[in-house]
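Entry 14. Structure prediction run on the chain below.
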Amino acid sequence: MTDDQKVSVFDVAKYILEHFSPNSLTSWKLQKLVYYCQAWSLVWDERRLFHEHFEAWADGPVCPVLFEKHRGKFDLFSADIEGNPDNLDELAKETVDAVIKFYGDKSGRFLSDLTHVEGPWLEARGDTPVGIRSHKEVTCDSMSEYYGGL
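Output returned:
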């Protein structure tokens, strides 16, 4: 990715959805896969994959701008997200492919539960009560530090 080429969360989401096509993904699972793509890009590639942020919602990390595009939909198909997977360079595609290979067969519930025992989401949640949405950001610094230590 060059400095003038910007990858968005929508580009990554579209790439993931195209991988699973013609099947759908739950919006819940897509959110967690995109989250792990960002986390592992920070560690493996030492860069942000995209610039949109995550918040520590009750069911795990959620990218609010992505959520707004799929609000009200449970199952998502490639056509449901406007993004351009061609914006991902080879390094980004390798990272996303590795995330899909490792996490792709897991359910959205499993991935949500997994984020609930990991540092970045827990740190951002702080003392927010269980089941309550939080708008606190899950920072890239906390993601990089936590996943880099695994």
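The chain has a mean pLDDT of 95.
Filed with the rest of this week's runs.
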